Amino acid sequence: MEKKTVFFLLIIGVMAGGLFSQSLTQIVYIINKAVPEVKNIAILYNHSNKETIEKDARTASFATQKKISAYGIKTKSDIPAALDGISLLKNVAVIVIADEVHLNAESVKYTTQKLGLKNIPVVSTRPGDTAQNAFLCVVRKDDNIEIHVNKTVAAALKITLTEDFLAECTLDRP
Question: Of all residues in the chain, what percent carry a pLDDT higher than 90?
Answer without folding.
Answer: 34
